[in-house]
């Protein structure tokens, strides 16, 4: 029977803007995450016009990882991590995005961080752009809507690829590029901001689709150029595309519901199609013809996309959604559906559908679509409230059961279904600031960080029960879960 390989990449993943803090230190510029205030489960984060004194910007401090990463990585090593994913804050390297020269202090910072990982035998897995483009590229160019941003990104990629070519092998270009297609999601305007630097909160759905189509195309071209360049700089590089894969289910077997589900899925998957296959899927080309959104896609761009396909597909998986058609017409389009409750699925305290089997299903789907492309799970986890008890203990059995069910689903996909999964990096192995809400109390970690939503607290790190559990999972290459099942 197929099983997880002996060099399977177990570990965890974070992003610079959610952890590092030090937002204006050593020449770092303002990023699009630095102008996001704190929100919560029922109050969206505000996008402010620059940094406004007196507002609470949780990414300005994160968990102070900028100053604590050596000790924090030591804790990851104690759990047996083989790999650790983080991002390079683009604004530490190019503070404005269009600067003539990179910022040496920022480059030196990541030199030391990657050396620290290597000393601990932890493989760095590095995202180039995780929701943190330079804010200046938004104010001056309108974010990814402008073709010139492609060159700024490629220049940034070239600088970091050259600098870290002997320290980093695994890269990915844009985090969760597919998020911005989620037009029926109530946060879709916000997702356009985090992905593309376009404030879509006040836009209509049609306006969002139009803006997204252009911005995402430029992001894909930039990604493909970076992939081709990275392979020239170091042919051993493994450069991935990264997408969120929240599976869709039809609410019923009614043909129109099936079509609505299929259309929702196609719209989610067009970005991974371009990453992996280097070309636009037919139905999206047809959609652009039909709707008249004709993004600026040149013949040269198409060659670039074809020449820069990714080495692996990095995916995040948290939850599934269920859709119901809003029309019985046979011409169901990408957004002719509503999200509805699935009676078979429980939800988290933040309303995310908890669905481990959906992970197996999704991995199968991806393996059918891209049979030759390895998959790395680079995010999966449960955001939950934690309570400190009995002195310094956190009994997070809810987290253990979520992760355990998902890891088992992944192992089944590998062992029974033959899916090629090369790594599992759970999200937020140490508590960090939530990207969606800006809260600290939405915690994912095996390691508790004593900070609250206002950034107050000792900052102390405490090992939760899940810390010891995950260490065992890694030590046994997942076998311990089978004994428990
Ligand atoms: C993914 C992002 O969308 O989900 C992460 O890549 C994010 O940056 C994670 O933190 C979990 O979302 P949230 O909103 O709970 O932080």
Give a quick account of the main beta sheet: strands, pairing sense, barrel closure.
8 strands, parallel, barrel
Multimerization status:
single chain
Q: Per CATH, what is the topology? A: TIM Barrel
Helix/strand-derived class?
A: alpha/beta
Shape: globular
The CATH top-level class label = Alpha Beta
Q: Report how far apart the termini are.
A: 18 Å
**Small molecules bound:** 6-O-phosphono-beta-D-glucopyranose
Low-confidence stretches: none
Number of domains: 1
How much beta, percentage-wise? 5-15%
The arrangement of helices and strands along the chain is: EHHEHHEHHEHHEEHHHEEEEEHEHEEEHH
Measured as a percent range, the helix fraction is: 25-40%
Average of pLDDT? 96
CATH superfamily: Glycosidases
Q: What's the architecture in CATH terms?
A: Alpha-Beta Barrel
List the strand order in the largest sheet: 1-2-3-4-5-7-12-13
| Radius of gyration over C-alpha positions, nearest whole angstrom | 21 Å
Please sum up the structure shown:
The chain is an alpha/beta fold and 485 residues long.
Provide structural commentary:
The chain is built from 15 helices and 15 strands. It has 485 residues and is of the alpha/beta class. The strands form four sheets. The protein has an eight-stranded parallel beta barrel, surrounded by five helices. Strands 6-8-9 form a three-stranded mixed beta sheet, with helices on one face. It has a two-stranded antiparallel sheet with strand order 10-11. Strand 12, helix 13 and strand 13 (421-427) form a beta-alpha-beta unit. Helix 6 (148-163) packs parallel to helix 8, helix 8 packs across helix 11 and helix 12 (356-369) runs parallel beside helix 13. The radius of gyration is 21 Å and the shape is globular. Bound molecules: 6-O-phosphono-beta-D-glucopyranose (BG6). 6-O-phosphono-beta-D-glucopyranose (BG6) binds next to loops.
């Amino acid at each position: 029977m197929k099983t997880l390989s002996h060099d399977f990449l177990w570990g965890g993943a974070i992003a610079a803007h959610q952890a590092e803090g030090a937002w204006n230190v050593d020449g770092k510029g303002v990023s699009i995450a630095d102008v996001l205030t704190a929100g919560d489960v029922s109050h969206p984060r505000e996008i402010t016009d620059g940094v406004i004194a007196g507002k609470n910007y949780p990414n300005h401090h994160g968990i102070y990882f900028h100053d604590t990463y050596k000790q924090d990585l030591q804790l990851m090593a104690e759990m047996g991590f083989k790999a650790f994913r983080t991002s390079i804050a683009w604004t530490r390297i190019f503070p404005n995005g269009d600067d003539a020269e990179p910022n040496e202090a920022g480059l030196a910072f990541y030199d030391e961080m990657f050396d620290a990982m290597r000393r601990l035998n932890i493989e760095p897995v590095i995202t180039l752009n995780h929701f943190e483009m330079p804010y200046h590229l938004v104010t001056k160019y309108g974010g990814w809507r402008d073709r010139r941003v492609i060159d700024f990104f490629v220049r940034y990629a070239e600088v970091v690829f050259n600098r870290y070519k002997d320290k980093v092998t695994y890269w990915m270009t844009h985090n969760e590029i597919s998020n911005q297609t989620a037009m029926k999601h109530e946060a879709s305007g916000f997702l356009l901001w985090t992905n593309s630097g376009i404030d879509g909160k006040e836009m209509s759905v049609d306006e969002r689709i139009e803006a997204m189509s252009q911005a995402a195309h430029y992001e894909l071209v930039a990604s493909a150029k970076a992939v081709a360049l990275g392979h020239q700089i170091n042919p051993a590089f493994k450069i991935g595309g990264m997408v969120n894969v929240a599976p869709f289910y039809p609410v019923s077997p009614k043909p129109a519901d099936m079509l609505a589900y299929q259309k929702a899925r196609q719209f989610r998957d067009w970005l991974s199609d371009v990453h992996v296959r280097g070309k636009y899927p037919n139905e999206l080309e047809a959609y652009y013809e039909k709707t008249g959104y004709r993004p600026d896609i040149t013949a040269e761009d198409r060659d670039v996309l074809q020449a820069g396909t990714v080495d692996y597909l990095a995916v995040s998986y948290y939850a599934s959604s269920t859709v119901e058609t809003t029309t019985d017409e046979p011409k169901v389009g990408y957004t002719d559906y509503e999200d509805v409750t699935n009676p078979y699925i429980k939800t988290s305290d933040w309303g995310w559908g908890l669905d481990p089997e959906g992970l197996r299903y999704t991995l199968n789907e991806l393996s059918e679509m891209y049979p030759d492309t390895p998959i790395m799970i680079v995010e999966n986890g449960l955001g939950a409230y934690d309570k400190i008890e009995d002195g310094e203990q956190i009994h997070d059995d809810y987290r253990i059961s979520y992760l355990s069910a998902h890891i088992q689903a992944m192992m089944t996909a590998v062992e029974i279904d033959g899916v090629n999964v090369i790594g599992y990096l759970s999200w937020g192995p140490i508590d960090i600031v939530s990207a969606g809400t800006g809260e600290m109390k939405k915690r994912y970690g095996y390691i508790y960080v004593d900070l609250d939503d206002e950034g107050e607290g000792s900052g102390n790190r405490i090992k939760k029960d899940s810390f010891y559990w995950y260490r065992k999972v890694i030590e046994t290459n997942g076998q311990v879960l089978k004994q428990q099942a």
